Records
---
Amino acid sequence: MIIPAIEARNVSKVLGAGAGQVRALKNIDLSIAGGKLTVLMGPSGSGKTTLLSILGCMLAPTEGSVFICGHATQGAGPERLASIRRQHIGFVFQSFHLFPTLTAEENVRLALDVRSEQRRRAKAKSRQVLERVGLGHKATAFPRDLSGGEQQRVAIARAIVAEPSAILADEPTAALDGANGQAIMTILASIAREHGRAVLVVTHDTRLLEFANRILYIEDGALTHEERPAANVYRLRA
Amino acid sequence: MTAVIPVLIGFADWRRQSDGRVKPVFVIGSDLNAGALVPWNLVDGNLDALRATNAVAVDRTYFGDLGVSGISSTAEIRSQPAKVVAVTEGIRSFTTTPYVFADLGRARAYVGLPPTKFNHFMIRLQPGADVRNVQHDIQSAVPDVDVLTPREFRDRSRSFWLFGTGAGAALFAGALLGVIVGTVIVAQTLYSSTKDHLYEFATLRAIGCSNRYIYRVIIWQALLNAVIGFALATAIGYVVVQVTAKSALPIVITPALVGGLFALTIVMCVGSAITAIIRVVRIDPVMVMSR
């Protein structure tokens, strides 16, 4: 049996308290396997980022369970969750979140440093991954010297350098122009296809759909339907 | 015992010749023949000259205070003439009262003690003598005096200044204040630096770094603060030592003191990191999603 990289079972999330309480996610069942790029689409406020945060072990669901590579996250403390993220998940954020005082290579290496990887090996690996995202020549550049697209590619390199099973990307092209957005999606698609990673991209940009192997639609906190491009549309919920 | 040498120590008023101003001095009278507690580090004049009438030895550091310029300068002590015949260097008092050395007889006149009175005795022992036994025997024979070894005398003096006077309390209070203020400043610096970089710490948490890694980062920052701060303080300390070396109150910083202070600085800075660490480990990594 193949264990999915990420699995959510009946996940719900209530945000806020009292009169301001909002049910941000409603009974989400989801399984994301390696080798595919999944896009989670939905309008603003539909619960995309909340779901991504829960799947990324940064937010605990109010109900339901999440499994990362078969590891249950329910009841796990912050250190255990950090350990799961460290071992299994790579993040790409909308605002890149690079460290301004570190070079591109050092930013990438950081993901290996937190895993206590040996320095020389980490350096070589970081260079290699920067080459893979087309930034080998910018390894010593600081984020301020890189364009938005280049910064996002550094962020992708940081997310994949430790070879996690899943890459979670939150609006990775939102801060980029069309060409750079396409380039970023091409890289993410190749990571899924060529390296067998499970890539989940949260977006509301329909131009990105062409890269998806699978599209999940979310609205008002519930998954409404799913598409497999060049295949069928599966209605999940009415 | 091989010798019991009387020594006379007392305060007197030194009247400057130049302007008639009076300065309290600490007169030390010693038996020049016995050679006990005679002035040392002579840089001008000689000990034999102290045998002359009204002859005194003073330290170069106090020339300004005593209104003298060197050998042959004159003044009055307790309305009696005094003439500088020897000059020392480095015999300085912990207080602002200068030492003035004189022959035993002159010193008695200067401090106004009757001829049969002494207030200190130095005792010389034969090599290999049991100091404790001798001390005990003397104490038993003369119960109303203090019998002290040189180390005990030094410790008593140090203890008096540190604990028996306001000077020690002020010194300790100053040092304690320095430690507290230093700790608070470093803590504030680290805390505000941490607050300025909350998103970076949240990113670290999001990519899975452990608490231990965060402790390491912040403690490393604290150690950097400690090393840079200590290097600056050492440079300032070095200048202060050089500047005060020839003054009446030289500041002495020994290698052991430097080592001790460095250790204290490290402890202070690492301790200061606690508030920053508490702040960072409470960061919710999900905050990186909101920006």
Note: Chain B has a mean pLDDT of 89.
---
Amino acid sequence: MRILFILLGIISAILGLALSILPFGKIALFPIIGSLIFCIIAFKLSQKERLNTTVIKITFLITIIGLAFNIYNSLKPNEIIVEQNQIENDLQAEEEDLEELEDIDIDIE
Amino acid sequence: MRQLVFLFLLITWFFVNSQNNSIGSYEKLNFTASYNMSGLLTDLAQVTMETKEVKTSKSTLLHLKCKARTYSKWDNFFKIDDTYESYVNPNTLTPYLYKREINEGGHYKFMKYSFNHKSKTVESQMRKRRSDGTFWDVNKSYSFGNSTNDIVTTIYKIRNLDLKSMSKSSSRPFSILFDNEGQKITIKLLGEESIETKIGIKNCYKIAIAINNSDLLKGTNTNLLWLTADKNKIPVYAKFKVAVGNGELRINSATGLKN
């Protein structure tokens, strides 16, 4: 049982860390919370049976790193990167459009 | 005489309804597009709707421009950079030139329609990028009906509808030329609702949008648009359901409004 919870904890922690690094936002919180729960259960079981808890502590650390990444990403504002050449392309495209509009029959009174 | 009065009223109604009363010349609306992932909304892209007055040697036109850009955090995974634009008559919103340029995760497509309202024809140009990076063009000519518009103009024309006079559950048809195909869409007024937005609590018209004979939009009354129940009728919130999931569009800011 203890091994099962340790394995579930490791899988959830890795998944949580991966989703936190990727821009998936709050969805990463599911495996992180899962990992925390599995780690606590595995830790209690290990303490009860007086077994080594090093793996659980490392898993817990990975979970905390994932959580930290998640909080950091959620605090970052949503940004759009507009490149200088894109602004120039837009202006050029508009000039071309205006030239094209000169050839179109526009009937405005 | 009665027929003359009726005709006069009909012409007046058409004139009033076809006039642009809602769209300003330098309007800018900013939205956040979110996608539903396992029940959690994740902000995906910024959508802007801008208008600008442009002058040619013969006339002054209104440039309607809609842009969708993924937030920079998504750019390394799936970058979207789409532009939809149309040059229209500022009074009647009649389109003259429409352009659509989409860049979606490496997929590129360009569409251009030049409308000739005298001959009722559209010159269409489509450009696609092959996997080897080279481009291929398809040029076609179509004839179109009186009420056919491009998609950008249609969005603005929906805003220009006299929703106040529409009764609940009544609907209006629109004809769109999209991807070289004529599409019929129906908008249905579902009623009025007050909703909280980033620009305040707004009393809105709740509208359902459906594309006839197409499975692009899923469900009945599931693709919804909330337009402010004022003279500007700005879209403040939208919910959409497509084949790959569902999402939302929420307004962040609105500047340069007409009224």
Note: Chain A is about 75% helix and 0% strand.
